[in-house]
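Bench notes, afternoon.
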Amino acid sequence: MDTKELCKEAIRISGIDPRKCMKCGKCSATCPAFEDMDIHPHEFVSMLCDGRIDRLLTSKSLWRCVSCFACVERCPRGVEPAKLIEAARGAGKYTDTSSDSEDYGRLLTAVLLTAASLACGGYAAVLLARHEKRRADDR
C-alpha cells in the first residue's frame, strides 16, 4: 500500500474527517503524553490530512498516546485525534516499518498505566508528579 492509500485507510477506519481541524492546538495542550511525543496530536491530524503517514508510522508518538481521549474532549470541532491515532496504528499494520511485539509491548504498557491511573486516582490520564505539583500550585 502506498502512503496515500494508508492515509485513506486510517481515515476510513477512524470515521473522522481530519479536514475539520482548525489547528488550534487545544488537543495537544491537554495531552498528558505531550512531553514524550515527537509529533503532537494537532500535528498528527495535519500530517494525516497532508498524506504524510510514513513519518507518523515510524514516530514514537504513535505508541506514546495512552488513549485517554483528553484530546477528544477538548477539540472544539469534534476531530477526535485519539481515534485517528488508533486508526493509524491499525493502518500501519499493512507496512513493515516496526516490530509488532515491540509496538504491542509499548501499547500494553500505556494501557496498563491508564488502567492503574483510573483505579487509583479516577483519572484516565496518568498524572505525573510534575502535574500534581502544578495542580497544587494552582489551588
